[in-house]
Amino acid sequence: MTLLVVALASSTLLLLAVFMGFVLGWANKAFYVEVDPRVEEIDAVLPGANCAGCGYIGCGEYAEAVVHDGASVALCAPGGESCAVAVAEIMGVEVEETWPYRAVVHCSATLPQRLGINDYRGEPTCAAANLVAGVQGCVYGCLGLGDCVEACTFDAMKMIWGLVQIDYEKCTGCGACVEACPRGIISRIPFKAERVLVVACSNKDFGNDVRKVCQVGCIGCGACARLSDLFTMDANLPTLDYEGNSVEKGDFEKSLEKCPMESLVYVGKPSPEDLAATMDEELPSRVEPEFETTVDQAEWRG
User: Fold this and answer.
1) What is the Cα–Cα distance from 46 to 80, expressed in whole angstroms?
2) For 285-302, what is each residue's pLDDT tens digit?
3) What pLDDT score was predicted for residue 206?
4) 3-state DSSP assignment of residue 10
5) Are 116 and 203 in contact, with CB atoms under 8 Å apart?
6) pLDDT tens digit string along 232-243?
7) How far apart are CA 91 and CA 71, in angstroms?
8) Cα-flanking dihedrals φ and ψ of residue 188, to 5°?
9) pLDDT, tens digit (0-9, with 9 covering 90-100), for 85-95
10) Is the pLDDT of residue 52 over 90?
11) Distances in Å between the alpha carbon of 8 and those of 2, 157, 234, 246?
12) Is there a contact between 53 and 174 (Cβ–Cβ < 8 Å)?
């Protein structure tokens, strides 16, 4: 009797296994989706950062978009030009003229240059501080709590004196910092030259109001726009069209000289001419910190 039960159970399991194998085989053929081999080839040459800087969720989705939807072969910022060339070869197309995109910060005020700063004891993130009124006088400027630094997976950003600084040797232009900044003072622009001029201010208030909250903010005087037609005034703030073809070749020296504040700055790698111009400058003497407190300065009696 026992052998009969075992044999029946074994037969049932065997039949069930055969049936399930048949069902799976049928489903594999019925629902099979043919994958274009170019998708896998493109996915293999992409850096695998999955940063979404191209506008797609990940490298795999971008590869599918290139093959099936005709997306540009030059959208991968971390991969750069070499990646664009490799993808173009797989697709059998020419690489359109393109430039690397990098992040720029539209604020130049360090902590000592910001006026009206109040004590903030909430969650130490820019996203949280941005919800609190009166954290600092300028409601447009960098909050200095480093959400962008945390978002950068390439270690290209750091905070110095409460202001984010970008290491352009490491920046890939993925755009993670742009999404992380609650005040929208970081943007991605095409670097058509090693160094580009940036309007390092986002304050659109009138000059007198700007002076009350910042020592280096743009006062909207319009001097830069009067001296160069590459600038356009927008709500008291000059802007530059980086998508145009003349910004990288523009002569901004007169605008820089006339700017009464420190709102126009060059960012990126210094050119050989810039290095040559400063090679004879004397570096300031090293300042050693004095570890002295108010206790050390107190006059003790008794």
Assistant:
1) 10
2) 333 333 344 444 444 443
3) 94
4) helix
5) no
6) 999 899 999 887
7) 11
8) -105, 130
9) 889 888 888 88
10) no
11) 10, 69, 84, 84
12) yes
Whole-prediction pTM: 0.70
Place of tokens 């004397």: 282
What are the chain's domains? 37-91 (1.10.15.40), 101-278 (3.30.70.20)
How does pLDDT run across 245-274, given as a tens digit for each residue?
566 666 788 888 889 988 899 998 755 554
Angle between the N-to-C axes of helices 59-68 and 37-45, in degrees from 0 to 180, rounded to the nearest 10: 130
Q: Compute CA 231 distance to the chain's CA centroid, rounded to the nearest angstrom.
A: 23
Burial class of residue 229, CB neighbours in 10 A (0-12, 13-18, 19+):
exposed
Strands 195-199 vs 264-268: parallel, antiparallel or unpaired:
antiparallel
Nearest residue to 106 (alpha-carbon basis) of 150, 77, 140 = 140
Average pLDDT over the chain, rounded to an integer: 82
Tell me which amino acid residue 280 is: D
Sole residue written with tokens 């300042």: 287
